[in-house]
UniProtKB/TrEMBL annotation:
Residues 762-810 are annotated as: Disordered. One of its GO terms (molecular function) is RNA binding. It is found in: Nucleus, Nucleolus. SUPFAM superfamilies: Quinoprotein alcohol dehydrogenase-like. One of its GO terms (cellular component) is small-subunit processome. It comes from Hucho hucho. PROSITE patterns: WD_REPEATS_1 (PS00678), WD_REPEATS_2 (PS50082), WD_REPEATS_REGION (PS50294). This is WD repeat domain 75. InterPro entries: Beta-prop_WDR75_2nd, Quinoprotein_ADH-like_sf, WD40/YVTN_repeat-like_dom_sf, WD40_repeat_CS, WD40_rpt, WDR75. GO terms for biological process: positive regulation of rRNA processing; positive regulation of transcription by RNA polymerase I; rRNA processing.
C-alpha cells in the first residue's frame, strides 16, 4: 500500500497478457486472459476487449472455467482470493478468501465444489517452497466467503501453471519439478515419483519444463529443456513404467497441450512454430510456422475447433484448428530494455517506446491496445545469437507531433560504431510517419540525448554526443505540405572539450540547457550565444529539467554525487539543493509538478513537488524494488476533480513508470476508481418487467425518466420543458459493439413495440382529451370565473381583520382538476333528490 490510503500503485494499461495461459470459452466466442490485476475478456472474432473484470488487488495468477456453469470462470490472485465471475455480463459473483498468495489454479469435473491452487508452504510471498492444495468452496449466500478448509495434495511443486496437469478426467494429477515427476492418484491417495538422470551426453538436459495429461487414457506428456517430449505410460506401477521420446524442437519445450479428445498433442517453444503431433501415429506431425515470437502457452477450446498460443512478445494468436491464424491480440511489447525511453505521441496520446526489433510501437493506454508498429530500421531482422544488427536507441517528437526523430546504431566487433539519424514527417493521408531525411554518421560517437525545441517559430532538433559536441538541426522549409522539406545542421557547439551528457529546452524554447560533465551551460537558440554557466556541488550532471508554467524560472538537475539542485535562471544562482540519489526526474507538461524517483536500500521512492515550494505534494516510500529508469506523464482524457491535496497532482496527468522487471505501473485514486465503477455496465433488472435484450439496454434510462416524472408530480415547481431523453439510450445502443448485440431482426420488433402506446393507456388518455375539445369554448368562461373567485378571495383576505393574509394561489394541477369537475354531468343527482 502507499502512504496515502486513497492512492494505490496498480497495473493499468500495458500489462502482460502472456503471463498465464489464456482460457477459451465453451462456445469459442470469447478468450479470457490475465492482465495485471484484472481479467480481460476478448472477442475471438473481432479481437476487441469486451469486458475488463476488475476486483483483485494484486496480480492475477490464473484463470479456470467453472465445470458446473459454462458461463462462469474462476480467477486467482496473489492477493489470496479466488473470485467467481460471470464473464458474459462482466459481473463479480462471489469472492472466496483463501488467505495465502495463489500462483496457479486448476479445476476438475470429478471434484465438484473444489478448486486446486498452488500456494507457498509458508504464508509468505518470498517462500521458495510451494504445495498443491485442494480448497473446498463453501456454499453461502454472501458475496465474500472465507474458504479455510484446505487439504494438501502434493508438496514441493513448481509454481508454474504448466508444471501440473489433471489426467483421465480428474482421476490423478501429475506435477513436475527439476528432474522429478510426481503422480498422485485420488482413489488410492498415494503418490508415485519418477526421476531422470541429469544427462551425461553432450547437450543433454533432462530437466522437466512442462506437463500435459491425456484426457481419456493413462498417458502423461512431459517437455524437457533439451527439446525432447516424453510420453509416460504404466506409471501406476512404479517399477514397470515406460516412456517413448519425440524430438523436433532444438530449444526447450515451453508448453504442451492435448486436444479435448486426445487425438493430437500440441507443442511450442522458441522456434515460433506450433507443432501438432498425432497421438497414435507419433511420427506424423503438422507445423504452423512463422508465428512471430517464442510460444509460451497453448490453449485449446473445449470443442477443439480453436487453438490459442501466447508469445514472448506479449501477443496472443488465435488459430483455427492448426490451419490458419484467424486473429492476433497484441499487447505492449516489452523487450529486454527500453533504450528509447517512454514518450507520448502528441497526436494520438499513445505511449511510444521500443517494440519488436527495429520498430517503434504506438500503444493506446486508454484503450489498452497497440495501435501500430513503425518500422525504423527497415531491414529484415535475423534471429541469431551473437549477430550484431541495427537497434533503435533514441526517439523524440516535436510539440505538435508533426515530426519524429530516431537514432539507430550498430556496433560490430572490430569496426566503428554505425549511427543513423532519421527524421520522419507525419502524413495525413496514411495517418503515419514517412521517412523524410536520413543523416549518416551525424556524430563521431554515441548520441546520448536529443530533444525538439517547443518554440512555435522554428522547428529545431538538438542532439548531443560523447564526441564533445551538440548539434542543432534546422528544418529548411516550413511549408504546410512538407514537400521538398529537408533538414540541415545549423550549429555545432561545445564547452572546453568536455563531454555533454544531457540537454533540455525551456517551456517556451527560448533557452537551451546542456550539461557538460560538472558544468551546466545555458544557450540562446536564436543567436547560439552562451548566456551563462551554472556551478553546483561536485559530481557529473545526470539529468536536467526546466520548470513549467509559474515555475518556469527554475532549472533542476541531478548529479552522480547524489545531489538534487535547483537554480534560479533569473538570478543565475543556486536556489536550493538537497542530498538525494535521484535516478529519474520527470516534469508534468500540464502543471508545475515534478516527479523525482530516488533509489534507497534497493527500492525506489517517489517525491512529487513544485520547485518553488519547500514541502512535497506527495511522497511514497518503497514504491517498487530496484531503480526506476523510465517514467512519463500522460495527459488525461477527462480531468479528475479530486479535493484531497495529496491527490491533486494526478488531476490533469497520470504518471506511468517501468520497474526493473518491465512492469508498467501507474497510480490510481479513489475518485478515479469510483468513476470507473460507475461507468462500468451493471445489469439492474426490474423483476416486474420481462427481461429482453432491448430492455437490458434501455431499461435503466426509462427508469430515470419515470423517476423524473414522479418528481415533477410531487414537486409542481419542478415542471419545465423536458428535452428528449431517448438520445442517451439510442447512443448506447449504437455504440455497443456489434458482436455483443443480438441480430437486428430480433431487436426490430421489440423496438417498434416499445414506441407504441398500449390500448389501455390510450383509452385513459382519450377521455380527458375529448372533454377538453368539447369544452374549448367554455374554458375561457371557467378561467374568468376562477380569476373572479381569486379576486374575491384576495379581497376578503385583504379586508377581513380576522383572516390570515397571503392565501396561497391555486396550482396549475388544481386548476385543471376544477375545470374537469365543473364539466361533470350531475343530472343523476337531481333524479335521486326527486325520489
Amino acid at each position: 500500500m502507499v502512504a496515502h490510503a486513497e492512492i494505490r500503485v496498480v497495473h493499468r494499461g500495458g500489462s502482460k497478457i502472456n503471463f498465464r495461459e489464456p482460457v477459451i470459452t465453451n462456445d469459442s466466442r470469447f478468450l479470457l486472459c490475465a492482465s495485471g490485476e484484472s481479467v480481460k475478456v476478448y472477442s475471438s472474432s473481432s479481437e476487441e476487449c469486451v469486458h475488463d473484470l476488475q476486483g483483485h488487488t494484486d496480480l492475477v495468477s490464473g484463470i479456470a472455467r467453472n465445470p458446473s456453469n459454462h458461463l462462469q470462470v474462476y480467477s486467482c490472485s496473489a492477493d489470496g482470493t479466488v473470485r467467481l465471475w460471470d464473464f458474459t455480463d462482466g459481473i463479480l459473483i462471489k469472492t472466496f478468501i483463501i488467505g495465502y498468495p495463489i500462483y496457479s489454479i486448476y479445476v476438475s469435473e470429478k471434484h465438484g465444489g473444489v478448486v486446486f491452487v498452488v500456494v507457498p508452504m509458508a504464508n509468505d510471498k518470498s517462500s521458495e517452497l510451494f504445495q498443491l492444495v485442494a480448497v473446498h468452496l463453501p456454499r453461502s449466500g454472501d458475496q465474500e466467503v472465507e474458504a479455510r478448509e484446505l487439504s494438501a495434495v502434493l508438496c514441493d511443486v513448481s509454481p508454474s501453471p504448466g508444471a501440473a496437469s489433471f489426467g483421465r478426467e480428474g482421476e490423478y494429477v501429475a506435477a513436475a519439478k527439476g528432474l522429478q515427476l510426481e503422480v498422485f492418484f485420488f482413489k488410492k491417495q498415494k503418490p508415485y515419483r519418477f526421476f531422470l538422470k541429469p544427462g551425461i551426453k553432450k547437450g543433454s538436459k533432462n530437466a522437466f519444463t512442462c506437463v500435459s495429461c491425456h484426457p481419456k487414457e493413462d498417458c502423461i506428456a512431459t517437455g524437457h529443456a533439451d527439446g525432447k517430449i516424453r510420453l509416460w505410460r504404466n506409471f501406476n506401477q512404479k517399477k514397470e513404467y515406460t516412456y517413448s521420446t519425440l524430438h523436433w524442437h532444438h530449444g526447450a519445450v515451453n508448453t504442451l497441450q492435448f486436444t479435448p479428445e486426445g487425438t493430437n498433442l500440441l507443442s511450442g517453444g522458441i522456434e515460433s512454430v506450433l507443432v501438432q503431433w498425432r497421438y497414435t501415429q507419433e511420427n506424423q506431425k503438422d507445423f504452423l510456422p512463422r508465428l512471430g515470437a517464442a510460444i509460451t502457452h497453448i490453449a485449446v477450446s473445449p470443442d477443439g475447433s480453436l487453438f490459442c498460443t501466447s508469445h514472448s512478445d506479449n501477443k496472443i494468436t488465435i488459430i483455427q484448428s492448426c490451419v490458419k491464424v484467424s486473429a492476433i491480440i497484441q499487447g505492449l511489447v516489452k523487450s529486454e530494455g527500453v533504450r528509447t525511453d517512454l514518450m507520448i505521441d502528441p497526436r494520438s496520446k499513445a505511449l511510444v517506446l521500443n517494440g519488436k526489433p527495429g520498430h517503434l510501437q504506438f500503444y493506446s493506454l486508454h484503450r489498452d491496445k497497440q495501435l501500430y508498429n513503425l518500422d525504423i530500421v527497415q531491414q529484415e531482422y535475423i534471429n541469431e545469437e551473437g549477430l550484431d544488427q541495427f537497434e533503435v536507441v533514441k526517439a523524440a517528437f516535436d510539440a505538435h507531433g508533426d515530426w519524429l526523430a530516431t537514432v539507430e546504431e550498430r556496433r560490430q566487433k572490430g569496426s566503428e560504431l554505425e549511427i543513423n539519424l532519421k527524421l520522419w514527417a507525419y502524413d495525413e493521408q496514411t495517418q503515419s510517419f514517412v521517412l523524410n531525411t536520413t543523416v549518416t554518421a551525424p556524430h563521431e560517437d554515441q548520441i546520448t540525448a536529443m530533444c525538439f525545441s517547443p518554440s512555435p517559430e522554428t522547428t529545431m532538433l538538438v542532439t548531443i554526443s560523447f564526441d564533445g559536441h551538440f548539434k542543432a538541426w534546422l528544418l529548411a522549409d516550413h511549408s504546410d505540405t512538407k514537400e521538398g522539406a529537408s533538414w540541415s545542421c545549423d550549429f555545432v557547439g561545445g564547452y572546453h572539450l568536455l563531454k555533454p551528457g544531457c540537454c533540455c529546452f525551456s517551456a517556451d524554447g527560448s533557452l537551451l540547457a546542456v550539461g557538460f560533465q560538472e558544468v551546466v551551460t545555458v544557450w540562446s537558440p536564436s543567436s547560439w550565444e552562451l548566456l551563462t554557466t551554472l556551478s553546483q556541488p561536485p559530481g557529473a550532471i545526470r539529468d536536467l529539467c526546466f520548470g513549467r508554467l509559474s515555475c518556469s524560472k527554475y532549472l533542476l538537475g541531478t548529479s552522480t554525487k547524489n545531489q538534487l539542485c535547483c537554480w534560479n535562471i533569473l538570478t543565475c544562482s543556486l536556489e536550493w539543493s538537497t542530498p538525494m540519489d535521484v535516478s529519474l526526474l520527470q516534469a508534468d507538461p500540464l502543471s508545475e509538478n515534478i516527479a523525482a524517483f530516488c533509489s534507497q536500500s534497493g527500492c525506489s521512492d517517489l517525491f512529487v513537488f513544485k520547485p518553488g515550494e519547500p514541502r512535497p505534494l506527495y511522497s511514497q516510500r518503497a514504491l517498487c524494488t530496484g531503480k526506476v529508469q523510465h517514467a512519463i506523464f500522460a495527459p488525461r482524457d477527462q480531468m479528475l476533480e479530486s479535493c484531497e491535496e495529496h491527490a491533486q497532482w494526478l488531476n490533469r496527468s497520470q504518471l506511468y513508470f517501468l520497474t526493473q522487471h518491465m512492469d508498467l505501473m501507474t497510480f490510481s485514486t479513489k475518485t478515479e476508481e469510483d468513476r470507473l465503477l460507475a461507468s462500468s455496465k451493471r445489469l439492474m433488472v426490474d423483476n416486474s418487467v420481462a427481461v429482453t435484450p432491448f430492455y437490458l439496454l434501455l431499461g435503466k434510462h426509462r427508469l430515470q425518466q419515470q423517476q423524473q416524472q414522479q418528481e415533477a408530480l410531487t414537486n409542481p415547481m419542478a415542471e419545465r420543458i423536458q428535452l428528449p431523453q431517448g438520445s442517451i439510450a439510442i447512443k448506447e445502443l449504437l455504440y455497443t459493439p456489434a458482436h455483443v448485440l443480438p441480430s437486428a431482426s430480433f431487436l426490430c420488433s421489440m423496438f417498434v413495440r416499445s414506441l407504441l402506446i398500449s390500448s389501455s393507456s390510450a383509452r385513459e388518455e382519450k377521455e380527458p382529451v375529448e372533454e377538453e375539445m368539447e369544452s374549448e369554448e367554455e374554458d375561457s368562461e371557467g378561467e374568468a370565473e376562477l380569476r373572479d373567485a381569486r379576486q374575491d378571495l384576495e379581497g376578503s383576505a385583504a379586508w377581513g381583520p380576522g383572516e390570515e393574509l397571503g392565501t396561497p394561489a391555486l396550482t396549475k394541477a388544481q386548476e385543471r382538476e376544477l375545470r374537469r369537475v365543473k364539466h361533470f354531468d350531475h343530472s343523476w343527482l337531481s333524479s335521486l333528490l326527486e325520489c
